[in-house]
Specification:
CATH superfamily of the largest domain: P-loop containing nucleotide triphosphate hydrolases
Number of domains: 4
Strand content: 5-15%
Structural class: alpha/beta
Radius of gyration: 33 Å
């Protein structure tokens, strides 16, 4: 995209000099010789950069700068000044000028400051694009799931997002609790402020305290410098405490103070620090039961449980599984640079009927693995190896001793392998219209070996989809 630059100077020789230096095919150059004309040009066109002389008759450069910045703050203004006007140039910087050049300047100087202004604009635009991308990712319409259970969750997010209320998100591991927390943040008035996550399950008690509240240099062995806590880093934004049920009782007391008083004391510090964070917590534990057992403070529980949201398990919203599966299919096909494939009816039936103890995260991993295994135009049951292994299609006796356990485990393993082999043969025949020769060629097997596998599982061509071909019944 072309860069548009406006040159403003009352001396024609300066304008010609700037034009000659910036004579680049990617620049569109306009020029005027007074401040009023410059302001008119700015209203008529969209400029990236203005190169503006300070000393001009009628309206000087400072007044032009001030009006430009009030109406179009995104335009970068480079001031030109004589050697005796340095103090005025400093004032221009305070008014919002990007930089200034002292006359006379070298061609390289002008080109360098223009390049710096353009690089800054590029970085700012990238940052805006990134923020927009992140924000749009967590819009309701981009969170997959239209089941009644998820519609209820969306309704709760919409109600609490514009407020500063503390939110407690509960649900099993892998249900998308952090996704809900981010949706709340990016649909709130704090969306342009930090969203900071702390996993309370991965840090020891002392490290968690330092992570949350920070510490001062020398407060403990290894504290070589001051460290900001996450309550400081997330100030004016949102702090998301994941695995909240694992926080030690000693830190729970300090968290209660932060929530009540909006202030905290870094480890080893004497002064209190103020904080203005919105707190969102998440846990897969039953906090109420922990309160009864004495492992979680009752007063803290009621402080964080102001606005509860429950993330339903995937088995409780099976209607969403097809949409989620295709969402992950598209995502990983793009990442792996593979042609977008489909999911066979049998494979989708398996996905929908599986119990998903690992919830959405397990479904995502299953689809990812299936795409890697898939070399065809569709994911079939045979590609869902982990699900088939986790759900053996046979009733097994309960072992009574270690010998029984070994024997039954062996049977289960053999049965899982048999299930995969059987699905492999059936799906291959379906893809090849029940033609055994083509099926063997596609899989890289000898026809006799493929037929042997068909015989092993008593698979006849008439048992598969497609028109029977009597010549390949074997």
């Amino acid at each position: 995209m072309s860069v548009r630059i406006l040159i403003v100077d009352d001396e024609e020789i300066v304008i010609r000099s700037c034009r000659r230096i910036l004579d680049d095919v990617s620049y569109t150059l306009d020029s005027v010789q007074d401040g009023m004309s410059a302001l008119r040009k700015v209203e008529e066109n969209e400029y990236d950069i203005i190169i503006l002389d300070i000393m001009m008759p009628k309206m000087d450069g400072l007044e032009v700068l001030q009006q430009v910045k009030e109406r179009h703050p995104d335009i970068d203004v480079i001031m030109m000044t004589g050697l005796s006007q340095i103090q005025t140039a400093v004032k221009a910087m305070k008014l919002g000028a990007f930089d200034y050049l002292s006359k006379p300047f070298d061609p390289d100087e002008l080109q360098l400051v223009v390049n710096r202004a353009l690089e800054r604009r590029r970085l700012l635009q990238e940052n805006r694009n990134l923020k927009t991308e992140v924000s749009s990712k967590y819009r309701f319409e981009n969170i997959v799931g239209s089941s009644p259970r998820m519609q209820g969750v969306y309704g709760l997010i919409a109600k609490c997002a514009p407020t500063n209320s503390t939110v407690l998100i509960t649900g099993e591991s892998g249900t998308g609790k952090e996704m809900i927390a981010r949706a709340i943040h990016y649909n709130s008035l704090r969306k342009d402020q930090p969203f900071v996550t702390v996993d309370c399950n991965t840090l020891s008690e002392s490290l968690l305290e330092s992570e949350l509240f920070g510490h001062v240099k020398g407060s403990f062995t290894g504290a070589m410098a001051n460290k900001r806590g996450m309550f400081d880093v997330a100030n004016n934004g949102t702090l998301f405490l994941d695995e909240f049920g694992n926080i030690p009782l000693s830190i729970q007391a300090k968290l209660l103070r932060v929530i009540q008083e909006h202030e905290f004391r870094p480890v080893g510090a004497t002064a209190l620090q103020k904080t203005n964070v919105r707190l969102i917590t998440a846990t897969n534990k039953d906090l109420k039961a922990m309160v009864a057992a004495g492992s979680f403070r009752e007063d803290l529980y009621y402080r964080v449980n102001v606005f509860p949201i429950h993330a339903p398990a995937l088995r409780e919203r099976r209607d969403d599984i097809p949409a989620l599966a295709y969402h992950f299919l598209k995502k990983f096909c793009n990442e792996l640079e593979k042609p977008l494939c489909d999911i066979s009816q049998a494979a989708m039936s398996t996905l929908v009927n599986y119990e998903w103890p690992g919830n959405v995260r397990e479904l995502e991993n299953t689809v990812h693995r299936a795409i890697i295994l898939c070399s065809d135009k569709a994911i079939h049951q045979a590609h869902l190896v982990n699900i088939m292994e986790a759900s053996p299609q046979l009733d097994l006796e309960v072992p009574r001793n270690s010998d029984d356990l070994k024997r039954i485990k062996k049977i289960a393993r053999e049965k899982s392998v048999e299930d995969v082999e059987k699905l492999f043969v059936q799906e291959t025949l379906k893809r090849n219209a029940s033609n055994v020769t083509r099926s063997a060629e596609e899989t890289g097997m000898q026809r006799s070996n493929f037929q042997a596998m068909m015989k092993k599982y008593n698979i006849r061509v008439r048992d598969t989809e497609g028109d029977p071909d009597e010549s390949v019944l074997g």
